[in-house]
Amino acid sequence: MKNVLFWVGGMCGVAAGLVVLLRGKGKPVDVLAHQLEVAWSDHHTVA
């Protein structure tokens, strides 16, 4: 059971890494950082 949970967690990590790499392809790091900052502030100001 523990091995299955580790396997599922690993696959989720790989999928998240691929999403980050593919969505950020060709964009400078400062642009990605700004997008993250805007998304974070929008998420925390909506109440």
Envelope shape: elongated
The SSE string, one letter per element, is HH
What does the main sheet amount to? none
Oligomer: single chain
Structural class: mainly alpha
Quote the beta fraction: under 5%
- List the total number of helices: 2
Number of strands: 0
- The average pLDDT is 83
Radius of gyration: 15 Å
Number of domains: 1
Question: Which spans of ≥5 residues are poorly predicted at pLDDT below 50?
Answer: none
What is the percent of helical residues? over 70%
Compute the separation of the termini in Å: 39 Å
Transmembrane segments: 6-22
Keywords: Membrane, Transmembrane, Transmembrane helix
Q: What are the main properties of this structure?
A:
47 residues; transmembrane; mainly alpha
Topology diagram in text:
Elements: H1 2-23, H2 29-45
Describe it for me?
It is a single chain. Helix content is 83%, strand content 0%. It starts with a helix and ends with a helix. The chain is mostly helical.
Would you summarize the structure shown here?
Keywords: Membrane, Transmembrane, Transmembrane helix. With 47 residues, the chain is an all-alpha fold. Helix content is 83%, strand content 0%.
